[in-house]
Amino acid sequence: MARIDAHQHFWTLDRDDYGWLSADLEPLYKDFTPADLKPLLDAAEISHSIVVQAAPTIDETRYLLSLAKQYDSIAGVVGWLPMDNANISASALSKLCNDPKFVGIRPMLQELDDPAWIKRPDLYATTELLIEYDLCFDALIKSIHLPHLLHFLKRNPALRCVINHGAKPNIASGEWNSWKTGIAEIAQQTDAFCKISGMITEASTEQDYSVLAPYIDYLVEQFGPERLIWGSDWPVLNLAAEYLSWYEAAQGLLSNLSLQEKALVFGLNAQTAYRLDLF
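User: That's the sequence. What structure does it adopt?
Assistant: Structure tokens below.
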């Protein structure tokens, strides 16, 4: 069985298409490459990873696919397309889908001014192409987006979706009710997967991994181990924690699961969600 880190990033500063990445984010303001990730994967005995876009450009997607050609450990690339421009998206998809490691797209919904953007009619054509090409849709969202994502997924039930970072509840402020209601509706009314990743960076610097327990327990309750996926969110993770400590903490936070259920969360579900053919 392959153990998979289903959510990580690579970037080089000289590409200059990471508008959110500035010098004040000192732990992140440098290049992060497959060579930097490899010792961390090896230490955790993780064989493969999914690299996810961090810039809203097709050029970055091509860059990540070029890395995937060089490194067998990269099992798939979740890229980016301008979903609201059907012509550009259609042209790009016709080329990107020739690469077997292109597994899906992620619009950066949390960065957009309109939390209901995903409901726009000018996204319909690209969404239908995602379904036609059997690609995955990664949802980078917060609690405010959950009702709109639910509408989108119910309109497109054939679209495979992976919610990133447990929908990023504001753990530092103790956010619970709005997140709990919205995430439960998606879990119960759609077939979406949900990643257990990127949540410790939503906690405060005074909080430790134990603060994640009620959130992760609730995700297990709602999605079941059959639809949860572990990821590191490295190197963004470096803002709050270290790679191995998060991996070990996740194992502990899921200690009530059987070995078979952990195998789903730490690898098999990623293979299913992203249609990976590793062997």
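The chain has a mean pLDDT of 97.
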